[in-house]
Write a structure and sequence with these properties.
The protein is an alpha/beta fold. It folds into 2 domains: 47 residues; 228 residues, Putative cyclase (Glucose Oxidase, domain 1, 3-Layer(bba) Sandwich). 26% of the residues lie in helices and 24% in strands. The strands form 4 sheets. A 7-stranded mixed β-barrel has the order 6-12-11-9-7-13-14. A two-stranded antiparallel sheet has the order 1-2. Strand 1 and strand 2 form a beta hairpin. Helix 4 packs across helix 6 and helix 6 runs parallel beside helix 7.
Length: 288
């Protein structure tokens, strides 16, 4: 034992360290420190687990997309479809199956990029990805559209929705459910062209579009008809205004009757088409 050291029981301690009488206290503090550290670790672990997704809490996925094929209604109303597909790879001959297909950009369930009506605006591939997964709002105007094929979603319709569900979330995609999808299997009825040479189906009013863009900062408008503008227009005011604001459109949307008015999330997945004014799109609503 060196000079300056003292023996306490069977242990040897430096004078600079605690006295012999403090030995039991040292053990108590060590036990306390270990216990406290273990409790803290368990607390942090519990908090981490609570932040993890609950495997028993799943979202329902609703497909809002019509199948892309050669017998969907087209804008021009031609008997020959703008969608064509032919076999390229044959399973028996080549060992694999593949096809070549061609289509218009604005056919079937599709996205209109802002460039569709505004020079220098975003084309399809330039739309920021964060604008493609957004809160979904569904305005149900099917009762009104049932009695008026030229019904336009109004600011009053938006106000009625907000009275029931609260203010529309900033940056949402707002869809109009008009019930027009029921005519999808009849091109004549879906286009509803009349003697004036114009199609007649519901759309958004310019006033509603302006309100949604200017005061609610929506990033997209959608509808279950051929256009966010009503059919009987030659000037397309909603297209013109929203294109300038960088807002995209989703047209010929399916299945909106299955989506709640609020609380869902929309996943917008267009073909990332370079310089596209529009593109076929897969739309998925995530409903908790």
């Amino acid at each position: 034992m060196n000079a300056g050291d003292r023996q306490c029981g069977s242990g040897i301690y430096s004078i600079k360290q605690l006295s012999c009488a403090d030995g039991p206290n040292v053990m108590k503090w060590k036990t306390f420190a270990i216990g406290w550290s273990l409790a803290l670790a368990l607390l942090l672990f519990a908090q981490h687990r609570s932040a993890m997704p609950d495997p028993n809490s799943r979202e329902t996925v609703i497909d809002l997309t019509h199948t892309l094929d050669d017998h969907s209604p087209n804008w021009e109303g031609t008997e020959q479809s703008p969608f064509q597909a032919k076999e390229f790879g044959n399973l028996q001959r080549d060992g694999y199956y593949s096809r070549i297909f061609t289509t218009q950009e604005h056919y079937g369930t599709h996205l209109d990029a802002p460039a569709h009506f505004s020079g220098g605006a975003w084309t399809v591939e330039q739309i920021p990805a964060e604008r493609l997964v957004r809160p979904l709002v569904v305005l149900n105007v099917s009762a009104e559209a049932l009695h008026d094929s030229e019904y336009e979603v109004s600011v009053e319709d938006v106000a009625d929705w907000e009275q029931q569900h609260g203010e529309i979330p900033e940056g949402a995609v707002v869809m109009a459910y008009t019930g027009w999808e029921e005519h999808w299997n009849s091109q004549k009825r879906y286009r509803n062209e009349q003697a004036d040479g114009l199609m007649h189906f519901p759309g958004f009013s310019l006033e509603a579009a302006e309100f949604l863009v200017k005061t609610r900062n929506v990033v997209g408008l959608g509808i279950d008809t051929m256009s966010v503008d009503k059919g009987a227009t030659t000037t397309h005011p909603v297209h013109q205004f929203t294109a300038q604001a960088g807002v995209y459109h989703l047209e010929n949307v399916a299945g909106l009757s299955l989506v709640p008015p609020s609380g869902a999330t929309i996943v917008v997945a267009p073909v990332k088409l370079e310089n596209g004014s529009g593109a076929p799109v897969r739309l998925l609503a995530l409903v908790k």
